[in-house]
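Sat 14:20. Reprocessing the chain from the morning session after the first attempt stalled halfway. Input below, unchanged.
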Amino acid sequence: MIDEDAAPAEAAPLQNLRFHNVSKHYATKEGPRCVLDNLSIDFPRGRNIAILGRNGAGKSTLMRLIAGVEAPSSGNVERLTRVSWPIGFSGGVHAKLSGFENCRFIARIYNADPREVTEFVDEFSDLGEYFHMPVQTYSSGMRAKLAFGMSMAIQFDCYLIDELTAVGDERFRKKCHEAFSTRLAAADIIMVSHQPGTMKDYCDMAAVLKDGHIRFFDSVDEAIAIYKEL
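Finished this time. Tokens:
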């Protein structure tokens, strides 16, 4: 077991992906609720990390802070590496824009070639003519295909996965798995999942989030055992 609120000492930081005294609070009827409490973390490089915790522990909040989708209430996140948004996250997709237009927008944000990104997602997502229609006309499954395709169109140094779920038919799921495996050959992952089998398949270390604090473990099995006792 590794000391609370600290990454393994022997692991180098992931190109400066760090939390410096990060806290996150949300307003509730009972007053502010602390989800993350003064976390200082160096996320290790070359490791695939599973994040465990009960519902409401702050796992998805942690992922959004890493991605930059949300800002911390205090402290700061040092992100000197190319980190993805949470895979499958469609919150950043503009509903009034077409899939094509969303792809061009994302490509510009990440300094990628808009033509390469749009061509990849068009072919990958199997949306057909809907690729050029507003996302607000899509079904939930079509949105998921677009979001996954956009995630795979850009090579990141670290992929964030908030409950990796299969979308589409068997052929499309196979395509997703192949694309994801290719990307992971040159990248690390930080994953939230409630499926022990999935965590073991993809991760080689884990962290347990409880009461606003995080504890890292070199063994996924040890972290799962601690998580089951919560």
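Residues 93-154 form one domain.
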